[in-house]
Amino acid sequence: MFNDLSKGLAIISGLILTMILVIFGAAFFVAQEQQKYTIQAPQEPIEVKPPVVLTEQQELGESLFKTNCASCHKRYKKAVGPALYGVTERRDQEWLYKWIVNSSQLIQSGDAQAVAIYNEYNQSNMNAFPQLSNDDIDAILSWVEIPK
């Protein structure tokens, strides 16, 4: 009878030991798999650009742009009119004053640049802005020229 009992205990002990080994083996395997998918910090630091701080002139320019220009122009892409970023590199400042104050008069004078823009945009007239001073226009241009 003790012989049968010791055989039974041996079998049960063997099964318990096997189950313990299987559980620890599975836990080890799962831990190894989880390490493959852990989130790691980036190898190179990420450059964070500080927010742009506008000057008083640029703040005025932004306000004037939104009031007078935004319905037809965007800073960085074409809309009803051309994209305005970079306009001060493409055009002379005095020319810009004349164009913004009264583009129709500049076109009628036969100015080659004015006529080319007029034709490029399906002969659509830009609104005249005689109420804007050169300082106002400078403020608008200073805001328009802020890089992305």
TrEMBL record:
PROSITE patterns: CYTC. InterPro entries: Cyt_c-like_dom, Cyt_c-like_dom_sf. Coiled coil: none annotated. The chain crosses the membrane at residues 12-31. Keywords: Heme, Iron, Membrane, Metal-binding, Transmembrane, Transmembrane helix. Residues 56-148 form the Cytochrome c domain. Pfam families: Cytochrom_C. This is Cytochrome c. The lineage of its organism: Bacteria, Pseudomonadati, Bacteroidota, Flavobacteriia, Flavobacteriales.
